[in-house]
Design the sequence.
């Protein structure tokens, strides 16, 4: 008010207001009420980054709540992010950037989709940070780690990473994408999960050659090299089909047709132009089944059938 009255302008360009911190029952925290949660207690029990994640995940423009049950949910979210980062680092244990990297045009289509999705994440997180909506940035990263990575991409990559020869081009393609994802995630997480991001940076191959600390690394920007709208739309349809296959597999398990998805054969009849360019082996990897067969439809109709895979499961070798 003084600034406006004396200079006809406020002494700031932007103002952010915040609400009260309440306990889990919605009552304002006070020492006298005995319902306050001491930050030092949270740090001692869960670590500083869990407390930081709670701060980064709340919409502080309104009243916010804090308590034991809420912290347990935050711990679970932190575990999801940390487990994703651990998986990425483990998959890159024999990867040297530059020497083992694959050029963008030689990446598999799945890996190009993952890197396109990463650019969308960078845009969303940057927008969240710049508008002080840190909870939107945190939610975008958590959804990416949980849905795009753990529930799909990293699951589908397992055979390529662990069953292929070390220098197989498809395996190096996956590692190239995983390296970029790990590097970008560490830098985007550093404002909130500073300790975890630094751990990742120190263990990420070649990262300290770029910057001695993640806090000194350049914050990522969307890379137009990996942005591909047509590819994203193609994979949107593919993932919708994958969801259909997963539902059909669950029904097949419940009826006893198959016990596990890797014992299943998927037969797709007609109506799947989006699958052009994919072999049966590619689709089996995508759907996490043993076999995929495609058939032309009579009269233009399409269908999806789940049955036992051809052949028999081999017994492990003795000794």
Sequence:
């Amino acid at each position: 008010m003084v600034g406006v009255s004396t200079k006809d302008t406020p002494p700031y360009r932007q103002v952010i207001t915040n609400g009260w911190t309440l306990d889990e029952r919605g009552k304002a925290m006070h020492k006298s009420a005995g319902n306050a949660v001491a930050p030092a207690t949270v740090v001692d029990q869960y670590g500083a980054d869990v407390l930081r994640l709670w701060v980064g995940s709340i919409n502080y423009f309104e009243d916010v709540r804090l308590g034991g049950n809420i912290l347990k949910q935050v711990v679970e979210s932190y575990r999801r992010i940390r487990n994703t980062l651990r998986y990425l680092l483990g998959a890159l244990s024999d990867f040297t950037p530059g020497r083992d990297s694959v050029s963008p045009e030689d990446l598999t289509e799945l890996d190009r989709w993952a890197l396109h999705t990463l650019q969308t994440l960078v845009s969303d997180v940057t927008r969240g940070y710049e508008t002080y909506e840190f909870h939107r940035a945190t939610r975008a990263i958590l959804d990416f780690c949980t849905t795009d990575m753990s529930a799909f991409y990293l699951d589908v990559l397992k055979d390529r990473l662990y069953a292929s020869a070390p220098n197989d081009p498809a395996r190096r393609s996956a590692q190239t994408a995983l390296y970029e994802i790990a590097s970008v995630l560490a830098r985007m997480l550093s404002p909130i999960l500073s300790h975890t991001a630094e751990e990742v940076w120190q263990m990420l191959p070649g990262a300290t050659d770029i910057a001695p600390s993640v806090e000194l690394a350049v914050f990522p920007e969307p890379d137009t090299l990996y942005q591909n709208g047509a590819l994203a739309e193609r994979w949107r349809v593919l993932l919708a089909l994958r969801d259909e296959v997963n539902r059909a597999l669950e029904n097949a398990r419940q009826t006893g047709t198959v016990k596990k998805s890797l014992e299943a054969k998927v037969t797709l009849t007609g109506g799947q132009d989006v699958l052009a360019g994919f072999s049966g082996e590619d689709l089996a990897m995508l759907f996490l089944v043993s076999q995929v067969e495609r058939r032309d439809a009579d009269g233009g109709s399409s269908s999806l059938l789940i049955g036992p895979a051809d052949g028999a499961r081999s017994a492990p070798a003795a000794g």
In short: The longest helix spans residues 134-163. The mean pLDDT is 91. The two ends are 83 Å apart (CA to CA). Residues 47 and 157 are 32 Å apart (CA to CA).
